[in-house]
Amino acid sequence: MPLPIPLRCPRCGAAARDFSGCAACREEGIGANPVPPLADLSGLSLETYPGGPWGWPSALSAPVAAPVTLGEGGTPVIPLPEGGPDGLWVKYEGANPTGSHKDRAMAVGVAAALAAGADTVAAASSGNAGAAVAAYAARAGLRCVVFTTDQVPEPLRAQIDALGAVRVVRDFATRNAAMQEAVERFGWYPLTSYASPAPGGNAYANEGYKSVAYELARDVPGLREGAGAVVVPTCRADLLSGIARGFRELRAAGLVAGTPRLVAAEPAGAAPYTAALALAERADQERVSVDPVPSPAFSLGESRPVWQGLDALWGADGAALAVPTEEFMAEHRALAARGLFLEPSSAVGVAAARRVARERAGGGPVVVIGTATGLKDTASVTSSGTAEERIPELAELLG
């Protein structure tokens, strides 16, 4: 499959032949994703940036002829109570068309597939990416195949099916292998990772995540000066590394004075970045492996750190925080009680962000990426009591 914009491994510099990650690093047991060159944002202004991945077309190092869009991006930044003196904010990606941050990437990725002449796009997904690919493929008139498992929550299965994609159900161990075979045999355009160890998703699609950084720099006082922190729920680090690339471009163009600290948030049962950063040597950090334990944060759960995620943290005074299930599910319920219904994976990020806000009081605003709406998985929702217990006056009416 030709790569019209060259992709090079940020770790070893090798040129990529396809979207399967860096072959040389894979031989070392390291998942690294070749990337396109950073964009030059010189002459642009954050004050006039309209938001979203298409807001600055010249910023996309991706081969697209025309946008494929459903109105993604421009998501709200919502303040949370008890956020400390500098503020704690949620960048609510659940406001995107299919309800998650994946829309930013898949809008760009499907546009790149369309420009490449593809007739079918493929994704291996536990849910959010599959729904996004299905929506944007339908928008572009392309066929879509989602390789998934029977563990995907029912609301996400319904969303993928309603959007016209074909679901191919395999167990987790063989899902990616089935996608790889389809890509190699039929020439389908891959929009997610399928190699092992996981290198990250389609590098052209991931250019859409840079727009999160642009919007944060525009909208959150303090981040433009390099103060504060951005907390990102992290698995294969496509979002984390995309945000890092966006801030690097902004800083190179003089549009921001510095880069905020980046923090990877993980469930405690699947926390390879936390395990990696506990080690002193980067060579050891690259080779960490953990045995992930399933949790309600179903979209997070990698066994190894992906290299560009580590690189994003190394370049931004980064950290990684592992959050126990009981802590992030308590946060999940508390957020809903305040009107913000996020998926449990997002609650992992909010719980970690509260820790960061406490530890860095006076160090600038803390923003967490709320990656998706809670409607993606309603199985974990529990009632907070009967109607009579919650509103005693109802006992007289209902009794």
Structural overview:
With 399 residues, this protein is of the alpha/beta class. 35% of the residues lie in helices and 12% in strands. It has 15 helices and ten strands. The protein has helices at residues 23-27, 102-115, 128-140, 154-162, 172-186, 203-206, 210-219, 238-252, 272-277, 282-285, 307-314, 325-337, 344-359, 387-390, 394-398; strands at residues 77-80, 88-92, 120-124, 143-148, 166-169, 189-190, 229-233, 261-267, 319-323, 366-370. The protein has a six-stranded mixed beta sheet, with helices on both faces. Helix 4 (154-162) links the parallel strand 4 (143-148) and strand 5. The protein is globular and about 70 Å long. 55% of the residues are buried. The model has no long low-confidence stretch (mean pLDDT 94).
Q: State the separation between the terminal residues, measured CA to CA.
A: 68 Å
How would a crystallographer describe the biggest sheet? 6 strands, mixed
> Treating each run of at least 4 consecutive H or I residues as one helix, how many helices?
15
Uncertain segments: none
Rg of Cα set: 20 Å
Strand content: 5-15%
